[in-house]
Specification:
The chain contains 22 helices and 14 strands. It is an alpha/beta fold. Among the domains are: 6-91, Gyrase A, domain 2 (2-Layer Sandwich); 118-305 and 358-413, Rossmann fold, CATH 3.40.50; 311-351, no CATH class. The strands form four sheets. The chain has a five-stranded parallel sheet with strand order 7-6-5-11-12, with helices on both faces. A four-stranded antiparallel sheet has the order 1-2-4-3. Helix 5 (134-152) links the parallel strand 5 (118-122) and strand 6 (156-163). The chain binds one RNA strand through strand 1, helix 2, helix 16, helix 17 and strand 14.
Length: 616
RNA sequence: GGCUCCGUAGUUCAACUGGAUAGAAUACCUGACUACGGAUCAGGAGGUUGAGGGUUCGAAUCCUUCCGGAGUCACCA
């Protein structure tokens, strides 16, 4: 960044001041600067306590001396007041006007020049046996937003996903389709491809359940219950927990499905053709959902390509003594020295596991793109898995091991608890998008402010508002926290919401429209009001907000920023006339100001993947 | 049980990573401009930051012991 802004300037001034007066060297970045609380006079506040011990002085004394220094050194600072260890600094109007000009000169304010580094983010990573759901949406929004944030931080960004396109679950849909479809296709059934395949996945489970039910009446099953059930365990309870074992040991359908998987693995052409057909339908469906969510991937990795990877890497490091082989041939890593346990890396039959694959995939990605950072957006239920994975890669001495990060986020719950496919409580992504856009449309029609627009344009606006509301609602919350989402309750459009922020932008656009294209006057002499300064202080903080969000992999920080800026604008708007301002100078300044407010609102919301309508 | 995460107004969330009297929204109550767009604004009420102890100029934040909730501890992914 060429200009580091006013905050950095004050930090340097303080550091220099201390160096001049006391001879101690202070790192400017360590100087804590806060926005001054409303009750006190000033724009920024320097916290003096951290220095008093080191300098062996009192806050009062330090404050007095720094006050003198600041006033004499910087023409931008016109007032300094000391309140119990806090130094409140007031900047001149001219300093703020200069800051505004600086912002207006940067089309992409807040964006940093390229740093030559590459940032890779993985998210979504769906299975190809059913459509995306609400949980995926949170995942996707987080990952997409992180990519956008790192983009403006100057990184080259690679957006990727691992598509889990193989395995027993995928074979289940294939099996059901081949048995029950009678050649039905998404076209003939008039269903989106992923929903179509998901339908057969559901059918499969019904089929299996039927088979299981009748099996439970056989003598084999009854004897099993008598012998193996725990004291007092009911029949239902026992067979509920036995289902997985039944699938593996007794089920005819299960056996046939597993045979299908084996055939697929051996490359049987008929099975592979079936697999390709169903997956291609699913991808068509996913493409639509991704497009509606506004996300694009630069590179997809397919599990069918990567599931055998990692084996050689593990074997190689086994020879180096990093891992141990047990008698049965399985290979393990021992992480007990750092308080974790032993983890299996290769099965006794030599096949890979999830973690083996991840090792292999990380290697391939590094070879493909040489990323400096690799971020995995995956739910917090896999926290331990990633701790283990990163530790193993570190021990393997991978050059990229230090740049790996697991962006862990909390699950999305319903008011009734977890989403469960078995209980049919999954909130489908496509349905939800339709629903929120409809809600936005209903709200807009009630207001009636768009009635003069052609239907097509209206619908585009409904979409932006509905999507903005949904995205904002999900992304404004700290990723670590679980979210309870009630699909039955209508989406919020008032208060801390996407539409509230969009509305601030729309109000500005409305004024600028009335003003006409060519309006661009210099402001001249003008004394700033507090609410105007507030907007400048906030906008001035935007680059720091981006950095903070990037450092913490936390888009919710940007979401909060956008809201605060919108709120400050709404307040200002209520209080000050723009088009009929009290003077030409006031009008000119305010127009310039709100142009930049609109710009920063749009830029910051874009980082969350939220679009701004010009009207609403 | 071991480890990890979470616990803040009735509810949903903040709190610049240890800084001033813990802030918003929502719901509730009271108000505002004959409209630069009311999807707005102002005000009121609402808190022992789960509980106790410690660290220090200063703690929602760090340490510790409890309490409550979630996740995870597979030759599953």
């Amino acid at each position: 960044m060429k200009n580091k802004g006013i905050i950095a300037e004050i930090q340097v001034l303080i550091a220099n001041g201390i160096s001049n007066i006391y001879g101690n060297e202070i790192n400017p970045d360590s100087v804590v600067i806060n926005q001054t609380k409303k009750e006190f006079e000033g724009d920024y506040t320097v916290v003096l306590f951290p220095f008093v011990k080191q300098l062996r002085t009192s806050p009062m004394d330090l404050g007095d001396k720094l006050s003198e220094y600041l006033k004499s050194e910087s023409s931008k600072i016109i007032g300094v007041s000391l309140v119990s260890g806090f130094l409140n600094v007031q900047l001149s109007d001219q300093a703020w006007k200069d800051q505004l000009s600086l912002i207006s000169n940067q089309e992409n304010y807040g964006e940093r020049v390229g740093n030559g580094k590459t940032f890779m983010v993985e998210f979504s990573s769906p299975n190809t046996n059913k459509p995306l759901h609400l949980g995926h949406i949170r995942n996707i929004l987080l990952g997409d937003s992180c990519g956008k944030i790192y983009k403006v931080m100057g990184y080259k960004v690679i957006v990727t996903q691992v598509i889990n396109d193989r395995g027993i679950a995928v074979c289940k849909s294939m099996y059901a389709w081949s048995k029950l479809s009678d050649g039905e296709t998404p076209d003939s059934a008039n269903l989106k491809g992923d929903h179509f395949v998901g339908k057969y996945y559901v059918k499969y489970n019904q089929l299996l359940e039927q088979e299981y039910q009748s099996w439970q009446k056989t003598d084999t099953a009854k004897n099993l219950y008598k012998e193996k059930a725990k004291e007092g365990q009911s029949v239902e309870d026992y067979f509920k927990s036995y289902k997985n074992q039944y699938f593996n040991e007794f089920s005819k359908i299960g056996a046939e499905t597993k045979e299908m998987l084996l055939k697929w693995e051996s490359g049987d052409s008929e099975t592979v053709a079936l697999w390709q057909k169903l997956n291609s339908w699913v991808y068509e469906g996913f493409d639509v959902t991704y497009k509606n969510l506004g996300v694009e991937f630069t590179k997809n990795y397919y599990e069918s390509d990567t599931y055998k990877l990692g084996r050689s890497a593990v074997e190689e490091h086994l020879e180096k003594g990093l891992f141990e082989r047990r008698e049965d041939g399985s290979i393990w890593v021992n992480l007990e020295d750092i308080g974790m346990d032993k983890k299996i890396l290769l099965r006794s039959d030599g096949t890979s596991l999830y973690i083996t694959q991840d090792i292999g995939t990380a290697n391939v990605r590094y070879e493909d793109f040489h990323p400096d950072k690799m971020v995995y957006v995956v739910g917090d239920e896999q926290d331990y898995h990633f701790k283990v994975l990163f530790e193993i890669l570190k021990r393997m001495g991978k050059p990229y091991a230090d740049g790996m990060y697991h962006l862990s986020y909390g699950m999305v719950d319903l008011p009734t608890g977890k989403m469960k496919s078995r209980e049919g409580t999954i909130v489908d992504a496509d349905d939800l998008l339709v629903e929120v856009i409809k809600e936005a449309a209903d709200a807009a029609k009630e207001v009636g402010s768009l009635d003069d627009l052609p239907i097509g344009e209206q619908e585009e606006i409904f979409r932006k508002i509905g999507m903005g509301a949904l995205k904002y609602q999900l992304i404004r919350i700290n990723p670590r926290k679980r979210i309870t989402f009630d699909p039955a309750a209508s989406i919020d459009m008032q208060g801390v919401t996407g539409p509230y922020i969009q509305n601030a932008y729309v109000r500005i656009q409305s004024i600028l429209r009335r003003l006409g294209e060519g309006y661009n006057q210099n402001e001249g002499e003008y004394t700033l009001f507090e609410d105007e300064k507030e907007l400048l202080i906030l906008m001035n903080h935007y680059p720091y907000t981006i950095k903070e969000a990037a450092d913490n992999y936390d888009p919710s920080i940007v979401a909060t920023f956008s809201y605060n800026l919108a709120k400050a604008f709404h307040r200002f708007y209520q209080e000050r006339s723009l088009l009929n301002a009290e003077s030409e100078e006031a009008k000119n300044f305010r127009i310039k100001l709100i142009r930049e407010v609109a710009k920063v609102l749009k830029l910051s919301m874009a980082l969350l993947g939220i679009e701004m309508p010009n009207r609403m």
